[in-house]
Amino acid sequence: MRLLLAEDEQELARAVQVILENQGYSVDIVYDGQDAYDYASLAEYDGMILDIMMPKLTGLEVLDRLRKDGKQLPILLLTAKSAVGDRIEGLDSGADDYLTKPFAMGELVARVRAMTRRKTVLQPRILTFEDLLLDCDAVRISNGKDEVKLSNKEFQILQLLMENPRQIFSAEQLIERIWGLDTDIEMNSIWVHLSNVRKKLSALNVHVKIVATRGVGYALEEEQ
Question: Pick from 45, 36, 37, 27: which is nearest to 8 by CA?
Fold first, then answer.
C-alpha cells in the first residue's frame, strides 16, 4: 500500500517513514502543504498522514481542497494541537482520524492500518493499462497469465506511470516522487530501476513499454 506523509519536521517524517516501510507500506514524504496537495491530487494513494501545522498551506486547508476536489482517500491528521475544538474541526472537515503528538509509533501504525482498511474494501487494487495488470497488494505485474514480482521501488515507479499513462515524467520528477525531496540518490539509480522494469515488461510480452524522450523524460505508452 502507498501512503503520503505530509510532515514539516523532517526527522520525525523520516522516522515515521522507516516504521511504516518496515510494516510493508510504500511512503512518499512532503514537507509543506502545497506539495501535500499537489502530490495527493496527481497520484493515487491508499492513505495520507497530514500534519495540520505546515508551511504554505495548513493541513486543514489541504484537507478542505482535496475533499472539494472529490478526493476520498483516507486521511489521518497529525498535530501537536490537543484541544477538542481542533479535533472537531479536523473531523468535520472530512478527516478519517486524528492523532495528537507526541504519539507511540505502534498506535500510529494501528490507526493507519484501520484507516486504509476502508479503502481496500471500496476500491480495486488492480491497475490496468492495455494488457498489463499491476497487483498493488501483491506488488507484481501480469499479462493475465504469467506474473512477475517487483521490487518496492520498481512498483512505485510503475504505479506512478500506470496511474498517469502517456504522461511524461522527468528523471528528477521520478526521483522526487519516489525517493523524496531531499534525497541524495544518484541519477543513474533511476535509470537502473527503469531498466529493470523494462526487462520485466518484456518478459511478460505485454503491449506496453516505457518510452524515453531525450531531454524530457519517461512515459508509459502502448506499443504501436
Answer: 36
Q: What are the beta bridge partners of residue 212? A: 218
Structure-block grid coordinates of residue 207: 503491449
pLDDT band at residue 147 using 50, 70 and 90 as cut-offs: very high
Grid cell digits, residue 20: 511504516
Helices 152-163 and 171-179 sit at what angle, rounded to 10 degrees? 120
C-alpha cell recorded at residue 167: 504522461
Compute the distance between CA of residue 114 and CA of residue 96 in angstroms, rounded to an integer.
Answer: 10
Before 102, cis peptide (omega within 30)?
yes
210 near 162, Cβ under 8 Å? no
From 100, 99, 94, 98, select the one nearest 73 (Cα to Cα): 94
Residue listed under C-alpha cell 486504509: 116
The per-residue pLDDT for range 66-91, each reduced to its tens digit, is 888 877 789 998 877 666 666 677 67
Residue 56 φ then ψ, to 5°: 75, -60
pLDDT for residue 163: 87
Q: Grid cell 501480469 — which residue?
A: 142
- Cβ-proximal residues to 133 (8 Å cutoff; 6+ apart), any chain: 126, 127, 141, 142, 143, 144
Q: What value does the CA radius of gyration of the chain take, rounded to a whole number of Å?
A: 18
Specify burial of residue 40 (Cβ count, 10 A radius: 0-12, 13-18, 19+): buried
